[in-house]
Amino acid sequence: MATSPARSRRSAVSVQLLVQFGLDHGLSLDTCLAGTGLSWNLLADPAAEVDAEQELALIGNLVAALGERPGLGLQLGRRYLLNTYGIWGFALLSSSTYRDAATLGLRYIDLTFAFHGMRLEEHGDEAHLLLDDSQVPPALRNFILERDLSGMLCVQRELINAPLPIKRVDLRISRPADTAPFLAELGVMPQFGQAHNRFVFERQLLDRPLPGANPGTAALCEQHCQRLLDKRRQRDGLAGQIRGLLLSRPGRLPDMEQLANSLHMSSRTLRRRLQQDNVNFRTLLEEVRQTLAEELLGIAGLSLEEVAERLGYGEVSNFIHAFKRWKGVTPSQFRKGRQSA
């Protein structure tokens, strides 16, 4: 049972936790967000999403500003409680056994904030959870390993209402000068400088019933996880390229034929490939128009007619109708609300 880490879109909740961690350690907001392309107002939106690379840039800022302190990532990981993962966390809580939770959790790990690939193996009386750091930037591996393993242990403690009884821990990182934080977090002293990041526990734990078991709820949550994962994946690959092209051309949004030319393919091929990915061009266009509309309405000098024209609407009334469908308010009401905020 293996997974690889997400390298695409993810919930901004982790960014919010990271920024708060930096602020709590005396850093300024500007220091935390420098070079990430993230803005302060995104931190207040629980539904916002960011790119994985933006989160990595933020982590890089924290490591650069706070230094390589052993145990610092462990402190951060304790903030990643099960409820920070949304529907993924609820799905795990509703699973019947620890094995079911582990299987589901690893299947949808791209809905979490982990940068490690994870694999669960069973060897005799032991279960081994391996964390693959091959896609983690070398300069950030120590900090991210600490965060991911501490966050993982938080989830497991909440699932079984008790600490995970770990038999052995192997870590690839070098032995730090101060190993006390690791002993306190894991309950055992890790073996450092090993070939793999490995957590070993009794295999029988996998069949342990979970106190919040509800198979019906777990099934519904898994369906929701799959829909959310599909939606995020549509933001990568070909669909992501199309969004990028559309967003880069406000005021002259290209049609299907122009997009196909930009991607060096025929419009027929583009339409077929989108269908294979279960992506609809009109839906992509609507999403981009909504994003651009919110940005353009923030420019005080632009009239509604000019905004509508830049978004490709022939009539301002069509833009007003579409915007009200998206946001539940008219463009004028939205603009007034933003100005008074």
Topology overview:
Layout: E1 9-11, H1 13-24, H2 29-33, E2 49-51, H3 52-66, H4 72-77, H5 87-93, H6 98-107, E3 117-123, E4 126-132, H7 141-160, E5 166-170, H8 180-186, E6 197-202, H9 215-233, H10 237-247, H11 256-262, H12 267-276, H13 281-296, H14 304-310, H15 316-327, H16 331-340
Antiparallel strand pairs: 1-2, 3-4, 4-6, 5-6
Q: What is the topology, as strand order, of the major beta sheet?
A: 3-4-6-5
The N- to C-terminal Cα distance equals: 48 Å
Structural class: alpha+beta
Order of helices and strands: EHHEHHHHEEHEHEHHHHHHHH
Question: What does this protein look like?
Answer:
The structure is a single chain. The protein is of the alpha+beta class and 341 residues long. It has 16 helices and six strands. The protein has helices spanning 13-24, 29-33, 52-66, 72-77, 87-93, 98-107, 141-160, 180-186, 215-233, 237-247, 256-262, 267-276, 281-296, 304-310, 316-327, 331-340; strands at residues 9-11, 49-51, 117-123, 126-132, 166-170, 197-202. A four-stranded antiparallel sheet has the order 3-4-6-5, with no helix packed on it. A hairpin with a 2-residue loop joins β3 (117-123) and β4.
Short description:
51% of the residues lie in helices and 9% in strands. It contains 16 helices and six strands.
Question: Keywords for this structure?
Answer:
9% strand, 4-stranded antiparallel β-sheet, two-stranded antiparallel sheet, alpha+beta, globular
